[in-house]
Amino acid sequence: MKSIEHVPTICPYCGCGCGIYLVVKDGNVVGMEPWKDHPVCEGKNCQKGRNAHAFSYSEQRLQRPLIKQNGVFEEASWEHALGLIAEKLQGVDAEAVGFINSAKCTNEDLYVIQKFVRVVKKTNNMDNASRFCHSTTVPALISTVGSGVMTTSTTSIEQADCIFVVGTNLQETYPIIARRVIRAKRKGAKVIVVDPRRTITAKNLADLYLQVYPAADNALVNGMMRIIIDEGLEDKNFIDKKTSGFDDLKDYLTTLDLSEIERTTDISIDAIKETALTYAKAENACILYNAGIAQHGAGIENIRALADLALLTGNYGKPGTGVNPLRGHANGEGFGDMGPLPVFYPGFQKVNEETAKRFEDIWGVKGLPSTPGMTYMDMVENCKVLYIVGANPMLAAPDTNSVRKALQDKDFLVVQDIFMTETAKLADIVLPTATFMEKDGTITGVDRRVQRMNKAVEPAGDTRPDWVIFCELAKMMGYEEQFSFSSPAEIFEEIRTCVPQYKGITYERLRNPHGIQWPCPTEDHPGTEVMFVEKFPTADGLGHFQIADYKPPLELPDEEYPYVFTNGRVVFHFHTGTMTRRTKRLNDELPHGFAEISRADARELAIEEGDEIMLKSRRGEIKTFAKVTDDIRKGLIFMPWHFSECAPNVLTGPSAGPPSKMPEFKFCAVRIEKV
């Protein structure tokens, strides 16, 4: 009788952090089983989670290093491929090389990558693919409440009396978090959904649904706060004891013209007032948001307004409250914690001389970089040598045609991934990596929950974990001592010395299926479910109100391009489709892209359901199929962004709002032509 083993691990897709059991038979993963006592998912998994193992067995898996010779990839040994990379990296100045990494990597992978970049190449030129999700979150929330993390836990969402859902389609993108909202609703909580599309979340969950004009969320929230103050519903005790800057915010809000807010948002004053009163009167109100408001040139203002709203009503420091960013990747929180970023060392310690000196002492080296490095798009545009790990800028970055040209013009491009992605096809060297079920490590989910990922099977072919590749490369370049790690557990021990929030977390403690939520200062500390209970992590311990004036999008519709274009996710696919489109069950559910168009617009353009249409912007054009619906605003076009053959970022522009440098992904002007 053949033995079957059930290996516990964490789903590799979104940041929910759901547990799964991988079923291993004869050295292969043959399926998955629900992890019924896992605290996050309780045995429930979405469509992606139920098929999480399948992409690892795709016939398209990269198996061995590839070197491009005369335009054709040829298999090579690891020693030869890494030798060429080491030689090229040693021959390029620090300011001319850049590294882009991904939150699909484990904490240990990301820690080793950032250490390599700083120790070996003496540069902070590195950034994470998650810049395109939450580079607006960090500056917005640090300036208001001192930290850009989720302040509660996903499990405590169901303790809220009001849940304000903005910029996210929960039931398609975070179905397990949506379960918590459903439970809260059954207990009597009111759910408010703000979205230009009447999504499945709006239809199924909303007690109040506001079909806001695209990119007008900030104006809506400012209007809500004006009404709350007019009605005397602000939490005066909380404001007096735990905040500063209220008088300035109040003075600003009183200057706003509510009729102008009505015109900007296309939401009636009565509806805005009902929404404001519903939120303000709740004992515990929770805000959940994601890319729909973050991926804008004015994303910082959008999120600051949400923080102001929570401070105004005293909704911080309790279960079921706070302003909670939802992370798109499995390790969406961990990537920031590990510091593979141009402005932060591990533990969100700012890049400066003091921090560099601290890490020189920890790592036993000299000359660590102390000035900020380049961000994602700056590296794509300006670095002569680029090393990309697990990211796919050919689909994920804005203005795809310009990105393609920039990558083709590189002196040297390395891509490290599990498949031959659209970006990898442009590389000089492609390195094959192990998948989540072929390596040990940890990840940190959306609610700061650190959990173990456990190796179930051996890596396919000659693939290797990302941390192993960078350690071997570092040794070739003369840094044997600093990269002598023999296991992820050993790497994690070093992480504990560098990241104060992780100090009390050990691999042994992480055998607990509940994981541990940082901050965890000591080994007998249980972890922290709710942040900011006593005070905020700001210099004075107070939450700081910030005026967040409404800013219109960077590119508006006009006569030539009269429609607003936006994009997002669908339940069956994940980000650039690298994994889900190589999973037969998921790809069969939705094998091609589409463009949602309102029935009114379709009628005017003589477009019918299923017609092939052309969308054109100032950057490029794509063909796709029309999906005619009553669930989208007139004048708005929506597309999912998982499909390379009709990639929305061919249309989106590179213009970005300072200082986050977040491109205006969710709003650009297009025209429509029937093919």
Give the name of the CATH architecture of the largest domain. Answer: 3-Layer(aba) Sandwich
CA-based gyration radius: 24 Å
Structural class: alpha/beta
Shape: globular
Contiguous uncertain segments of 5+ residues:
none
Largest β-sheet summary = 7 strands, mixed
Q: Order of strands side by side in the largest beta sheet?
A: 5-4-18-17-16-6-7
CATH overall fold name of the largest domain? Rossmann fold
Distance between the terminal alpha carbons, to the nearest Å?
59 Å
* Count of the separate structural domains: 4
Q: Total number of β-strand segments? A: 30
Summary, kept brief:
This protein is an alpha/beta fold.
Jot down its keywords.
single chain; 675 residues; alpha/beta; N-terminal domain of TfIIb; Rossmann fold; Dimethylsulfoxide Reductase, domain 2; 4 domains; 7-stranded mixed beta sheet; 6-stranded mixed barrel
Task: Explain how this protein is built.
By secondary structure, the protein is of the alpha/beta class. It folds into 4 domains: 4-57, N-terminal domain of TfIIb; 66-130 and 331-517, Rossmann fold; 134-326, 3-Layer(aba) Sandwich (Dimethylsulfoxide Reductase, domain 2), CATH 3.40.228.10; 563-674, Barwin-like endoglucanases. It is 30% helix and 20% strand. It has 24 helices and 30 strands. The strands form 8 sheets. The protein has a 7-stranded mixed β-sheet, sandwiched between helices. It has a 6-stranded mixed barrel with strand order 23-27-24-26-25-30. Strand 28 and strand 29 (662-663) form a beta hairpin. Helix 9 packs antiparallel against helix 12 and helix 9 runs parallel beside helix 15. The protein is globular. 58% of the residues are buried.
